[in-house]
Every structure is written in structure tokens, then in C-alpha cells.
């Protein structure tokens, strides 16, 4: 057995220890290098993850702002749409009201046309009736003026109750004691086209009855004959 004090043995031991120490140092160095690489890789990963998160947060903020902008724009569009609907509703109501006014105007025009037609028919009827009455007056003039001394005068009523053209029938040869004495009855035509007695001088009590009979028959000669009889009868009382 060799002694440890042997220089050769001592050198080999020292060399072996140095070799072991160097291997351990290399192992530590490798571990440190690996750890440093891992740390660097981790820092890079963390930085990359942080950048990604920051970018994601920024994108999310932009997306949120975009969504808020869209929401506000949508609200404005809703308000504008509501206003347009209200305006359309008002326009439709106005159109419907104008249609109703149009129908009302058309009905009024039709009513006016009907009234005008009736008025025209009434005027034509009155005109025909007046022509007939004029003929009756002409006949009455021939009968009474030529044979009985009847005078027919045209007068114009000026009072509030008596307006328009009137006729006065002046009877003479009524009183035997005074043949020239005048007995007068004044007549006109009312709004309905019928004969109307305005007055008589002297007053005849039965004048209302005679007027009603005249309006029923339109027989003016017979009416004048009855009036003459009443005047004569009154002078004999």
C-alpha cells in the first residue's frame, strides 16, 4: 500500500480534487447559465404577455368607445325616428282633416246646388203664377174698369211693413148718393207668391175671409166682385 505522503500520490489526489472541483464549477456555471437563460426567457415572456395584455386593454378600450358611440348614435336615430313618426302622424291627421273638410265642402256645395235648383224652380213657379195673375188682372181691368168704373193704380210701399210694388183698386159707383166717392183696396204679393191684402178704405170686416178665399182659388175677378158687393152692402147699412 502506498503512503499518502508519497509525492506522486499526493499530486494525483490534488489533481483529482481539482478535476472534481472544476466539474462542479462547470455544473454550477451551467446551472447559472441555464437559470439566466430561463430568467431572460421568462422576462421576455412576461414582457410579451404584458404587451399583449396592454394591447388587448387598449383594443378593448377602443371597442368600448366604439360601442358607446354606436349606442349614442342609435339613441339619436331612435329619437329622430320617433320625431319622424310623429311628424308623419301629424301629416296624416292633417290630410284626414282636410279630406273631411273637403267632404264637408262637397256636401255644402251639393246642398247649395239643391237649394239653388229649388229656388230656381220656385222663381219659375212664381213667375208662371204671376203671369197667370197678370192675365187675371187684365181680365179684371176689362170687366171692372170698362163696365163698373174700376180704377187700378200702381203704388210703391215705403213703410217697414209694406214694401215693394202694390196695386190699388179704386171702386166707384158704389154709393147711390155719391157715385164718385172712392172705395179703395190695396193688394200685393207676399214672399210665397200669394195675393196679400194690405188695406181697405173703408175697412171691411170680412176682408180676412175674402183674402183667404183668394189665396185658395187665385180667382182675382171673383175676389174683386165680392169686395164690390161688400162695399155696396156696407153703404146700405
How would you summarize the topology of this molecule?
Elements: H1 7-148, E1 151-158, E2 163-171, E3 183-189, E4 195-201, H2 207-217, H3 220-235
Antiparallel strand pairs: 1-2, 2-3, 3-4
Polypeptide structure, described:
InterPro entries: Spc25 (IPR045143), Spc25_C (IPR013255). This is Kinetochore protein SPC25. Residues 163-231 form the Chromosome segregation protein Spc25 C-terminal domain. Residues 67-140 form a coiled coil. Belongs to the SPC25 family. The chain is an alpha+beta fold. Among the domains are: 92-148; 149-236, 2-Layer Sandwich (Copper Amine Oxidase, Chain A, domain 1). Helices cover 71% and strands 13% of the residues. The protein contains 3 helices and 4 strands; from the N terminus they run αββββαα. It has helices spanning 7-148, 207-217, 220-235, and strands at 151-158, 163-171, 183-189, 195-201. Strands 1-2-3-4 form a 4-stranded antiparallel sheet. Strand 1 (151-158) and strand 2 (163-171) form a beta hairpin. Helix 2 packs antiparallel against helix 3 (220-235). The radius of gyration is 67 Å and the shape is rod-shaped. It starts with 6 loop residues before the first helix and ends with a helix. The model is unreliable at 159-163 (pLDDT under 50).
Amino acid at each position: 500500500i502506498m503512503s499518502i505522503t508519497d509525492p506522486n500520490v499526493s499530486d494525483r489526489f490534488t489533481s483529482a480534487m481539482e478535476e472534481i472541483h472544476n466539474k462542479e464549477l462547470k455544473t454550477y456555471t451551467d446551472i447559472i447559465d441555464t437559470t439566466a437563460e430561463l430568467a431572460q426567457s421568462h422576462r421576455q415572456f412576461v414582457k410579451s404577455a404584458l404587451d399583449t395584455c396592454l394591447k388587448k386593454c387598449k383594443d378593448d378600450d377602443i371597442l368600448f368607445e366604439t360601442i358607446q358611440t354606436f349606442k349614442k348614435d342609435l339613441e339619436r336615430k331612435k329619437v329622430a325616428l320617433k320625431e319622424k313618426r310623429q311628424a308623419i302622424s301629424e301629416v296624416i291627421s292633417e290630410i284626414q282633416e282636410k279630406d273631411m273638410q273637403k267632404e264637408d265642402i262637397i256636401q255644402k256645395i251639393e246642398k247649395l246646388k239643391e237649394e239653388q235648383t229649388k229656388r230656381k224652380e220656385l222663381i219659375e213657379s212664381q213667375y208662371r203664377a204671376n203671369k197667370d195673375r197678370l192675365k187675371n188682372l187684365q181680365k179684371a181691368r176689362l170687366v171692372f174698369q170698362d163696365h163698373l168704373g174700376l180704377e187700378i193704380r200702381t203704388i210703391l210701399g215705403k213703410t217697414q211693413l209694406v214694401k215693394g210694388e202694390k196695386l190699388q183698386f179704386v171702386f166707384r159707383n158704389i154709393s147711390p148718393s155719391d157715385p164718385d166717392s172712392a172705395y179703395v183696396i190695396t193688394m200685393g204679393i207676399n214672399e210665397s207668391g200669394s195675393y196679400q191684402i194690405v188695406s181697405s178704405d173703408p175697412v171691411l170686416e170680412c176682408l180676412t175671409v175674402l183674402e183667404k178665399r183668394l189665396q185658395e182659388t187665385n180667382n182675382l175677378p171673383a175676389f174683386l166682385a165680392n169686395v164690390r158687393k161688400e162695399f155696396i152692402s156696407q153703404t146700405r147699412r
